[in-house]
Amino acid sequence: MRKPIIAGNWKENMTHTDAISLVQTLSYELQEKDYDRAEVVVCPPFTALRAVQLILENDHIPIALGAQNLFWEDEGAYTGEISGKFLKALHCDYVIIGHSERRKYFNETDETVNKRIEAAFRNDLKPIVCVGETDEEREAGSTEEVIGRQLRDGLAGHDISKMVIAYEPVWAIGTGKAATPEDANDTIGFIRRTIGEISDAKVADGVRIQYGGSVSAGNIAQLMGQSEIDGALVGGASLDAKSFAMIVRY
Ligand code: PGA
User: Fold this and answer.
1) Closest Cα partner for 215 from 228, 229, 204, 201?
2) pLDDT of 30-72, one tens digit each?
3) How confident is the model at residue 1 (pLDDT cuts 50, 70, 90)?
4) Can you give the pLDDT at residue 112?
5) Is 118 marked active-site?
C-alpha cells in the first residue's frame, strides 16, 4: 500500500515570521487521524526552515519538513548555494528537485537534477522529483517523450524506491487549470510504467507519484480517487492553512 503524501510547496513566499503563523494555524487545523491517512510535508523557503523546524519539533507536530532545492556540493566556495548537509542539519526529510520553475528560470536540466538527487541521497534526504510537459510539448503530442526523457536522464543510476515523483504539467501550475483527473491518471500510469522499465516492477508498484498543478480543496478528492495518484504537490493553495488542511483531509 502506498501512503498518500500531500506536500505544500510555498515557493518564494512567507518570511520566517509569516511561516511561523502558517504552520501553527495548520497544526490547529489538522488532527491525528489526518496524519494517519496521509503523510504531510511543508516546504518553506530556506530562510524559514529553522523557524518551522523548531515549531514542528517543540510542539511535536507530525508534519515533515522539506526544502525546495539543494546544491550538489556539500560545502565549499559556491556563493549563495545551500547544501543537503545543511538541510539535514535542520532535520529536513524531503527536498524538491527539478521543479519546472527551476528548469525554466534557473537552467535546471536533467543532468543537474541527477546531480542533486545524488547529493540528496548522500545526505539522507528524500527527493521529490518533478517532471512534466509544457503547453507546447503537449500540443505537439510529445508529452510521453518529454517525460520519458526527464525520468531516464534525471533518475539514471539512482534508487527510485527512495524517491517521490511529482507529475506537474507546466501549463497547470498556478493557472487555476488543473489537469483532468483522468488525464493526470493516464500520465502518471505512463510514469509508473516507465519506472518499471528503468528499474523493476516492484519499485514501480511501490513508488509514490503525486500530481501537482492548481490542486485545490475543490478538485483534490477527484484527483485522489484515481488509482495511480498517490498525493499532491500543492503550490498556491498551501499558503492558506484552511485550504491546505482541506486538501490533506480530501
Ligand atoms: P500550484 O503550484 O498549486 O500553485 O499550481 C504547484 C507547484 O508548482 O508545485
Assistant:
1) 229
2) 999 999 999 999 999 999 999 999 999 999 999 999 999 999 9
3) confident
4) 98
5) no
Q: What is the mean pLDDT of residues 164-192?
A: 98
Residue nearest to atom 1 of ligand 1 (CA): 235
Q: Residue 236 Cα, ligand 1 centroid: separation in angstroms?
A: 6
User: Which residue is closest in CA terms to ligand 1's atom 7?
Assistant: 235
| pLDDT average, residue stretch 133-139 | 97
Rounded distance, CA 100 to CA 134, Å? Answer: 9
| Whole-angstrom distance, CA of residue 233 vs CA of residue 81 | 24
Cell numbers representing residue 212 in the block: 501537482
Amino acid of residue 48 = A
Residue 166 CA, closest ligand 1 atom number: 9
Which parts of the chain are beta strand (E)?
Answer: 5-9, 39-43, 64-67, 94-97, 126-131, 164-167, 208-212, 231-234
User: Closest ligand 1 atom, CA of 178?
Assistant: 5
Ligand 1 interacting residues, C-beta cut-off 6 A: 9, 168, 173-174, 212-215, 233-237
Rounded-to-integer distance, Cα 239 and Cα 22, Å = 7
Number of H helices, E strands in the chain: 12, 8
Query: b or e along 66-81 (b: 16 or more beta carbons within 10 Å of the residue's beta carbon)?
Result: bbbbbbbeeeeeeeee
Atom of ligand 1 nearest to the CA of 233: 9
Note if 99 is an active site residue.
Answer: yes
**Spatial distance between the Cα atoms of 179 and 165, rounded to a whole number of angstroms:** 17
Measured by CA distance, the residue closest to atom 3 of ligand 1 is 235
Q: Is residue 128 over pLDDT 90?
A: yes
168 and 133 Cβ atoms separated by less than 8 Å: no
